[in-house]
Amino acid sequence: MAIIGPMSLADLLPRAWPAGRLPGGPGGLRGPASGVILLPRHLSLPGMRECDVSDDRARRAAYGLLLAQGSRSDIARFVNGGLLRRDWPLIRGTMSPWLRRACERRLGLAAGDQPAGDPPGRQPARRPRGSRE
Questions:
Q1: What pairs with residue 37 in β-bridges?
Q2: Cα–Cα distance between 38 and 100 in angstroms, integer?
Q3: What is the DSSP letter of 30?
Q4: Rg of the Cα trace of the chain?
Q5: Cα separation of 105 and 124, whole Å?
Q6: What is the pLDDT of residues 25-80, one digit of tens each?
Q7: In this structure, what DSSP letter does residue 123 have?
Q8: Tally of CB atoms within 10 A around 22
Q9: Residue 52, SS3?
Q10: For residues 39 and 2, what is the distance between their CA atoms, to the nearest angstrom?
């Protein structure tokens, strides 16, 4: 009678895999702050290799893809640390919890950062109950 049953490699990957793929810190993210990046073929859908870094939605999608599936050199080459920090509050919700924690720990991203343009601690204005504007 075995006390511990067989374990698949997939059960081990969430703990060991992301940290080794991520650069050692935010200084390792050398991606451009403007312009167009050409993603590697193994990370892009046909016809969708180019990403304009100034397009917020396209950049967030590319950064999420790179963090989830890119190699260490892909992440370091294409992800800009300042832009990632600014976009992190929106990107983090699309990632698995273990990858999100690894990125926050390894890249120094704060779990509670506010999206760009929102002052910290500011709540959206609420209408009084029963108000019809």
A1: 51
A2: 25
A3: B
A4: 19
A5: 29
A6: 888 899 999 999 999 888 887 778 899 999 999 999 999 999 999 999 999 999 99
A7: P
A8: 22
A9: strand
A10: 47
